[in-house]
Amino acid sequence: MKKMLSIFSFLIGIFTLCSCKYYKELIILNWQDYLSYDLVREFEEKYNCVVTELTTTSNEQMYANILNRKVPYDIAIPSDYMIDKLYNENLLLEIDHSKLDNYDENMFVDELEELMYNDKNIVYKNYYIPYFWGSLGIMYSKKNYPNIGEIIEEYGFGVFFEDVLPDGAKVAMYDSSRDAFAVAELYLGYSLNTTSKDELEKAASLLKNRKFSIWGTDELKIGVAAGNIDVALVYSGDFFDAFYSDLDGTNPDNIENYSIYAPTKANNVFYDGMVIPITSAETELAYEFINFMLDKDNSYANTDAVGYCPTLESVYNDVMNSEDWIDITSIKAYNPALIVNEAKGKAEVYKDLGDETYRYLEKLYLEVRY
Predict the structure, then answer these.
(1) What CA–CA distance (Å, rounded) separates 339 from 348?
(2) What is the three-state SS of 182-250?
(3) What are the backbone dihedrals phi and psi of residue 272, each rounded to the nearest 5 degrees, phi first?
(4) Which residue of 6, 26, 247, 294 shows the fewest CB atoms closer than 10 Å?
(5) Angle CA(17)–CA(18)–CA(19) in degrees, nearest 5?
(6) Residues with Cβ < 8 Å from 328, sequence gap 6 or more?
(7) pLDDT band at residue 22 under the 50/70/90 scheme
(8) What string of H, E and C letters represents the secondary structure of 239-268?
(9) 81 near 88, Cβ under 8 Å?
(10) How many angstroms separate the CA atoms of 278 and 273, rounded?
(11) Among 5, 9, 367, which residue's Cα sits nearest to residue 201?
């Protein structure tokens, strides 16, 4: 009986191995918790394929992963300036919009198009499809200092560099060269895309002279939501990750204990986009995935699962006008279109600074951090 069972198990294993090779595999390079698992399962069933999602913690790591070509990534979801860099280094395939039945060049939010398709970005617009967008923000806890939000709204990004917060407040900075320097540049009135060594050095000096309690990334939103950090630079989506977790979880009352403020006089507004790297082995399946995500119902479901602001105008309008979303949309930081409108030209998208400037920025950043 054991022998027969062993033979049966062997035959099942052989059948499985043989049948698996007929399944196409779509490999996605993405951020953590940035894609609805339910939609992934639905896509797999619809196209009789397997989706493998590999995650990263930075645009720079995403670039390195694509550059070394060790994995045949079919889809990647980098941010604006990294899309620029990947394009400049011929690491992306141009997107054939005729293969995307759900695509329309006028389907995106007007304010987003204003940012994306200016004269400096229009060159590579045919190499990505907008995914989500958002802004930098100041997340804060009311646990230790109930009125801290009033100070933050008055001073904006200045709270990171001026002695205006209560003594003992724990202040955290985002552990990313581009974002940490961005806050200093915004405070100093510089462009977020400055290549001036003098301006970069002054931004570095400003950061170096502040003793931040914590440098981090995803852990910052958790620390503020728990009341262990008083103020932190985060992306708007980081805040909403924590907010959704509490709102839909076992601790809904906790959402009253923290909030976020996104300065509107000048700020970084970012967008992430779906691209097809030159590493792609299943390019036609990649097109199917992009087209699938451009479906209005799927885009809405993904927005509901992920929590960032949608880029499709139809979904954006539904979200903004829905009573079901009022807890979210009433928080101004959710809507980067407000920043674009109120900043009057001072809402900037990161752009590729070039290798020379980037190396210098990283050198300065290491001096700031260590």
Answers:
(1) 10
(2) HHHHHHHCCCCCCCCHHHHHHHHHHHHCCCCCEEECHHHHHHHHCCCCCEEEEEHHHHHHHHHHHHCCC
(3) -105, 150
(4) 6
(5) 95
(6) 240, 243, 307, 319, 334
(7) low
(8) HHHHHHHHHCCCCHHHHHHEEEECCCCCEE
(9) no
(10) 16
(11) 367
| Count of beta carbons in the 10 Å neighbourhood of residue 316 | 23
What's the rounded Cα separation, in Å, for the pair 260 and 54?
29
Rounded distance between C-alpha atoms, residue 184 and residue 83, angstroms: 24
Contacts of residue 269, Cβ cutoff 8 Å, sequence gap at least 6? 115, 133, 134, 135, 336, 339, 340, 347, 348, 349
Cβ neighbours of residue 79 closer than 8 Å, sequence gap 6 or more: 59, 270, 271, 272, 273, 350
**Using CA atoms, how far apart are residues 257 and 19, in angstroms rounded to an integer?**
53
CB neighbourhood size of 250 (10 A): 7
pLDDT at 206: 97
Integer Cα distance of 270 and 135 in angstroms: 6
Confidence of residue 14 (pLDDT cuts 50, 70, 90): very low
Quote the pTM value.
Answer: 0.88
Q: How confident is the model at residue 119 (pLDDT cuts 50, 70, 90)?
A: low
Question: What is d(CA 349, CA 178) in angstroms, rounded to the nearest whole number?
Answer: 12
Residues contacting residue 360 through CB under 8 Å, at least 6 positions apart: 197, 200
DSSP E strands, the chain:
24-31, 49-56, 75-76, 129-141, 171-174, 214-216, 231-235, 258-261, 267-274, 309-310, 347-348
List Cβ neighbours of 333 (8 Å cut-off, separation of 6 or more): 135, 137, 236, 239, 260, 261, 262
Residue with tokens 């001026």: 162
- CA angle centred on 270, ends 265 and 271, rounded to 5°: 145
**Which pLDDT value is given to residue 218?**
86
Tokens of 286: 């990649």
- CA 60 to each of CA 78, 79, 203, 262: distance values in angstroms, whole numbers, following the listed order: 9, 10, 21, 25
The dihedrals phi and psi of 90, each to the nearest 5 degrees, come to 60, 40
